[in-house]
């Protein structure tokens, strides 16, 4: 979820279809795809020597260069870093929301919890999750990574009502708050100990962690902090020209107007949640404005009535979460439909291992290049979310 991701940028073509589409778009078909891909990932990416952990890529040659960190690039290691690992945690949480799959995936959740705790660093105060498993090496602690852990733990709590998961999300939020300071009027930086920028990824995930904890605990402390993060984001990073969220703000006050779908997705979902919590229609209006702006900005019309969007798959699934939350409120299926068609086409471009191309249409995708765990796991989440939507069930309604 880092700023240096040009190597991962891919193009997506999307085409709107009615939500009540043909049989190929049924809930059962989407769930079957999600489960099939999940099983493939579980079998191919598990690192047997490290319980609960996965490899970064498949096939894993440990020579890929990873560019999503502050500073210099690093080489692929024995197991994945925390960000791609989180994709499997998120996917499992969505599968658990399908009644037909719940009992099957509860043991998988236990394994994922074991895995994520391998990244928990208690040697520094406050405790937080570092980028690589603690027993293997000491590494940096990113506030956005910790935001992902907090969100995953809250989704696990909504699925199970296990109080330990709520407690761990609250502990994650303590770590995130340790990075809040008065520079630029608030907000947190990207990386612990570095004060060069305050990015949308860190502050957007912090917003959602706080709001999800409030949803589960009804402790107003978290609603108040969610609003602080939300208001900071909208004041500092909402771009007036495009209507989408900028990447970051430097400590000199300049704004990096690089735009990624996921940054807008965080605030879209947060806006819908605030509308639910407060009943204030300004948040619904904000959500609808962000949704429309994201489509306008990231969508480029091509021939045959199609639209091309540029971004990586996981970034789009974060935007999709926001679109799904908005659909649950206003019933407008347009944004759901365009991405549904896109992931339908992605399914037609599997490789010989059953893995999907990161370019959903398969164009210019090097078949010899290893497949990244995050690119694959987020597709499970897509299909599981679509299965839920087609079933007429609301993810928000579980909270």
Write up this protein.
- The protein is mainly alpha-helical.
- It has one domain (6-398): Glycosyltransferase, CATH 1.50.10.20.
- The chain has helices at residues 27-45, 82-95, 102-117, 143-160, 163-177, 200-217, 220-236, 261-278, 281-298, 313-330, 334-347, 373-390; strands spanning 10-14, 57-58, 65-66, 74-75, 120-121, 128-129, 197-199, 246-250, 255-259, 299-301, 307-311, 371-372.
- The strands form five sheets. Strands 1-11-10 form a three-stranded antiparallel β-sheet. It has a three-stranded antiparallel β-sheet with strand order 7-8-9. A two-stranded antiparallel sheet has the order 2-12.
- Helix 2 runs antiparallel to helix 3, helix 4 runs parallel beside helix 6 (200-217) and helix 6 packs parallel to helix 8 (261-278).
- The radius of gyration is 19 Å and the shape is globular.
């Amino acid at each position: 979820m880092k700023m240096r991701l040009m190597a991962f940028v891919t193009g997506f073509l999307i085409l709107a279809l009615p939500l009540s589409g043909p049989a190929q778009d049924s809930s059962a078909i989407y769930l079957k795809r999600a489960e099939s891909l999940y099983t493939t990932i579980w079998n191919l990416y598990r690192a047997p020597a490290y319980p609960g952990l996965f490899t970064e890529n498949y096939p894993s040659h440990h020579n890929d260069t990873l560019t999503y960190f502050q500073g210099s690039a690093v080489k692929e290691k024995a197991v994945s870093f925390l960000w791609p690992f989180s994709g499997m945690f998120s996917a499992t949480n969505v599968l658990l929301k399908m009644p037909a799959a719940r009992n099957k995936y509860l043991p998988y959740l236990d394994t994922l919890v074991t895995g994520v705790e391998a990244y928990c660093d208690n040697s520094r105060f406050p405790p937080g999750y570092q980028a690589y498993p603690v027993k293997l090496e000491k590494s940096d602690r990113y506030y956005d990574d910790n935001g992902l852990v907090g969100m995953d733990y809250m989704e696990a709590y909504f699925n199970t009502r296990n109080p330990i998961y709520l407690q761990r999300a609250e502990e994650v939020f303590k770590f995130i708050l340790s990075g809040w300071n008065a520079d630029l009027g608030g907000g947190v930086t990207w990386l612990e100990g570095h004060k060069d920028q305050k990015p949308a990824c860190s502050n957007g995930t912090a917003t959602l962690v706080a709001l999800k904890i409030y949803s589960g605990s009804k402790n107003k402390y978290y609603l108040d902090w969610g609003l602080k993060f939300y208001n900071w984001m909208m004041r500092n990073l909402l771009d007036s020209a495009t209507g989408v969220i900028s990447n970051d703000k430097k400590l000199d006050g300049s704004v990096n107007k690089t735009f990624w779908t996921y940054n807008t997705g965080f605030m879209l979902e947060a806006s819908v949640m605030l509308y639910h919590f407060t009943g204030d229609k300004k948040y619904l209006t904000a959500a609808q404005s962000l949704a429309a702006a994201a489509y306008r900005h990231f969508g480029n019309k091509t021939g045959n009535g199609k639209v091309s969007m540029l971004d990586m798959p996981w970034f789009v699934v974060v935007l999709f979460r926001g679109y799904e939350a908005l659909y649950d409120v206003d019933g407008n299926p347009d944004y759901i439909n365009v991405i549904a068609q896109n992931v339908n086409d992605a399914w037609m471009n599997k490789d010989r291992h059953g893995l999907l191309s990161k370019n959903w249409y398969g164009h210019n995708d090097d078949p010899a290049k290893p497949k990244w765990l995050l690119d694959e796991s987020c597709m499970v989440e897509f299909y599981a979310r679509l299965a839920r939507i087609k079933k007429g069930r609301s993810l928000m309604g579980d909270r």
